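Re: the 96-residue chain
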Amino acid sequence: METSETLSRDDVLKMLSTIYDPEIPVNVWDLGLIYTLEITGIDVAIKMTLTAVGCPIGPAIAEEIRNKLQSIGAGNVVIDFVWSPPWTPERLTPAG
C-alpha cells in the first residue's frame, strides 16, 4: 500500500519521459539511457549512460533529472553514470 512517503514508479517514469537528450529528439527513458531505476520510499537511485562517453551534456541531464524528480516529491536522487554495457541504438524502446 502506497503512502505519501512513497514515490510511484509510474510518476518517476512519466517525469523521465519529459527529459530529452538535446541532440536527439527522444527522451532519456525511450532512448534507453536509464539502465537501472530503484525507488525506496521517496529516494531514487538511477544508473544511466549517455550515447557517447565524452558527451559534455551529462551533468546537465543529471541535474534536470534530479530537479524534476524532486519537484514531484523525490527526496535523495542519486545518478551514477556507467559505461558498460555501452549504449547502442538497440536500447531504444518501441516508442523511441
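The chain has a mean pLDDT of 92.
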